[in-house]
Write a structure and sequence with these properties.
about 160 residues, alpha+beta, six-stranded antiparallel beta sheet
Length: about 160
Amino acid sequence: MSTSPAIEKLRQVLSKIWNIPSSETYHQAPFIRNCLHPVSATLDPTVTVTFEFTVLRELCNAGNNLHGGATATIFDVVTTLAINLVSKPGYWEIPGVSRTLDVVYLEAVPEGEVLEVTGEIVKIGKRLAQLRGVMRRKKDGNVVATCEHGKVNIDRPNGGKL
């Protein structure tokens, strides 16, 4: 990974996530730490994050392919990490909650396959964000799944109630 400002911000975000105690509510932290490996990040002209991961048996269905629920979870995590690159005090401090997560599955992905998944901010405002995700096989670049992810900002104005 290079040392662009986007990569540095992503490293800071990941460091915070990795250090969340397992007793706290962010249960995806071990998965992010152990399975998703950052590849790149950009802030301009589009905010993107790209991770690489290997399809583990724990992520597979009975057919020994990446489970659809695992695919959706990975998209949820990766697209949300893109929001973390633009968060600042008073603006998406908490990366919101999902309002929609539409996944299109294009190809079965067997255990052991190495994939790259990119999350991108399509549009972000004060209250709503529209994100996009693309999952590709690393060896040939073929798209295996895509997603559109809508989020709602749940930051409390001035620390108060919503």
